[in-house]
Design goal:
31% helix, two-stranded antiparallel ribbon, four-stranded antiparallel sheet, 3 helices, 127 residues, alpha+beta
Length: 127
């Protein structure tokens, strides 16, 4: 190999490494703060603008919430650096049984786990 080819190869390697480092820096996920009453209300309005829930329950760790609107349950849970929204029949959510401080919900595409303070389900806010 001659010097020009080595110089071009070295420059290409350095440029690719710089681009990979820049892309990794841009893609750094930001931590999502736990939900409180205000952020839960804003997130519900954003994800379900046509719904007005009667009651809202926020998980003990602030990573999820379940809202009830009549016979429908609105579910939001943290996934990655954002939240996923699902709506289900209330009977499915009411039939769940917590164990060991965890409430496991089976959806078609995910298995979110909600942190509960007691094994009494549903909580009085949603009943």
């Amino acid at each position: 190999m001659d010097k020009a080819l080595l110089l071009q190869l070295g420059g290409s390697v350095a440029a690719v490494a710089l681009l990979v480092a820049f892309a990794a820096w841009l893609g750094v996920a930001r931590s999502t703060p736990p939900l409180d009453a205000e952020s839960a209300k804003a997130l519900l309005f954003l994800e379900f603008p046509e719904h007005r829930p009667d009651a809202v329950w926020i998980a003990a760790d602030g990573a999820a919430l379940i809202a009830r609107e009549g016979a429908q349950a609105l579910v939001l849970y943290r996934r990655g650096d954002g939240y996923v929204a699902r709506d289900l029949p209330w009977s499915v959510v009411a039939a769940l049984k917590p164990s060991g401080g965890r409430l496991k919900l089976r959806l078609s595409d995910a298995r979110p786990i909600f942190a509960v303070e007691t094994d009494a389900w549903p909580p009085k806010e949603l009943a």
